[in-house]
Amino acid sequence: xxxxxxxxxxxxxxxxxxxxxxxxxxxxxxxxxxxxxxxxxxxxxxxxxxxxxxxxxxxxxxxxxxxxxxxxxxxxxxxxxxxxxxxxxxxxxxxxxxxxxxxxxxxxxxxxxxxxxxxxxxxxxxxxxxxxxxxxxxxxxxxxxxxxxxxxxxxxxxxxxxxxxxxxxxxxxxxxxxxxxxxxxxxxxxxxxxxxxxxxx
Length: 201
Ligand code: SF4
Ligand code: SF4
Description:
The chain has helices at residues 11-16, 19-43, 56-60, 68-80, 86-96, 119-123, 137-140, 152-160, 169-177, 194-199, and strands at residues 65-66, 106-107, 110-111, 186-187. The protein is mainly alpha-helical. It has one domain. Strands 1-4 form a two-stranded antiparallel sheet. Strand 2 (106-107) and strand 3 (110-111) form a beta hairpin. Helix 2 (19-43) packs antiparallel against helix 8 (152-160). The site of one iron/sulfur cluster (SF4) has 10 residues, from helix 3. One iron/sulfur cluster is lined by residues 58, 64, 103, 105-106, 111, 113, 117, 121.
């Protein structure tokens, strides 16, 4: 796979964790696809509303899908990469988190796991006006939500299939298209993150 400029790189960690390059490749495929689509829409005069510090979506969404490899990525990132004082803030947030609450990784109105945010978060982009407090633009104004021009989610997921012990090219496609991979999806807001808090010591 050709390396994208957007691909995150953790050379030492990638040698240690064989799943990590798969996940970083998947994220770069998604990020490249989203970037191209945004650029195309901006050429047509649409204005991206998403910007740093805007986080109403993270509070409003209650059903963000997260794949098993992404959960492993979040565990790794929080345990090994996040520094104080954010680390303690995350731990407290995870301890307080109840099923169905907003995403526990939103700390001080910013994503505390930004490099490891799930594919769904990476793909969700809104044009026009910023989302109001409590608004989920997916439902209120779907015409303003980025619709992928290509199946880069599928390509990103394809990249992760060895994590699930699927190596054969045809089996990879079947694993995705049959819904087997999707059957493993968890909901970020409902996941028992307390276990991560415990491991943080
Ligand atoms: S999706 Fe909405 S709330 Fe989230 S960053 Fe974009 S404009 Fe802001
Ligand atoms: S993981 Fe980050 S971007 Fe996604 S909902 Fe949580 S705080 Fe927002």
